[in-house]
Amino acid sequence: MTSETTPRVDPALLAGNRKTMADYQAKHFLWEAKGKVGTITLNRPDRKNPLTFDSYAELRDFFGQLKYAEDIKVIVVRGAGENFSSGGDVHDIIGPLVRLKAPELLMFTRMTGDLVKAMRNCPQPIIAAVDGVCAGAGAIVAMVSDMRVGTARSKTAFLFNRVGLAGCDMGACAILPRIIGQGRASELLFTGRAMGGEEGERWGFFNQLAEPEELDAAAQKMAERLADGPTFANGITKTMLHQEWNMSIEQAIESEAQAQAICMMTEDFSRAYHAFVAKERPVFEGD
Fold it and tell me: Where do the domains of the chain lie?
């Protein structure tokens, strides 16, 4: 079959008729797209931006749709006001949960876990801009992001232990030790104490710290740098960083060989070569 007779597959069909996310109308958080960078703002500043059943579900579905987006290449997650997120809303979530039976409780915990899986499985790098309170499920959202920019005054607490629950919530026991180490993660998950911003940077939880008034600009700068890079290849990098947790070294090397061979077929790889020959800076387009 020649290229002239090969039928063209409409990307909209593969993407459930959604090719862009810039025009997404969020109901339970704020959404703004500038160029290739999209920003999610948890927007309940009077309550330190807690999550509700509805916001959990919308965030889960939103990140699930991002894998089909052609326009958004990087995501920034932030909180309105001077806090990131206080976690699950005490009145809208915690109160109702104590009255539910086991099957309904399991439905809820699986839904929150599905948010984590959606964030890990979307190809766009996610940057969390963390200021002030970052607790419970809010700490999980920051943890699951690919990179984190914090402030010295930020307080990150995996406080499940303090409300009578296990620290193994939404993947914390699997993911947090990989970021800060087993001993440090154990301390935070067993005690529920808050990790300060400077401590978080020293332990590797935060990639960098910024002054509170410069936090958003620092996160956007990081996002724009990634968005200007080879975004298809960045998506492959995110996928491999996630998948290789469960691989042997031999499996990882083979998987990376296959992944890199795919990236070598992209136009961005060719652009980079020709730009190098011409002693120019490559302009990547993500294809």
Answer: 11-227, 231-277
Would you call 110 helix, strand, or coil by DSSP? helix
pTM for the structure as a whole: 0.91
Burial call 148-171: b when 16+ CB within 10 Å, e when fewer: bbbbbebbbbbbbbeeeeebebbb
Q: How many CB atoms lie within 10 A of CB 41?
A: 19
CATH class of 11-227: alpha beta
pLDDT above 60: residue 278: yes
Q: Give the residue among 218, 240, 232 at the shortest CA–CA distance from 270.
A: 232
What gap in Å lies between CA 117 and CA 60, rounded to an integer? 8
Residues 6+ apart with CB under 8 A from 103: none
pLDDT, tens digit, 9 for 90 and up, residues 201-216: 999 999 999 999 999 9
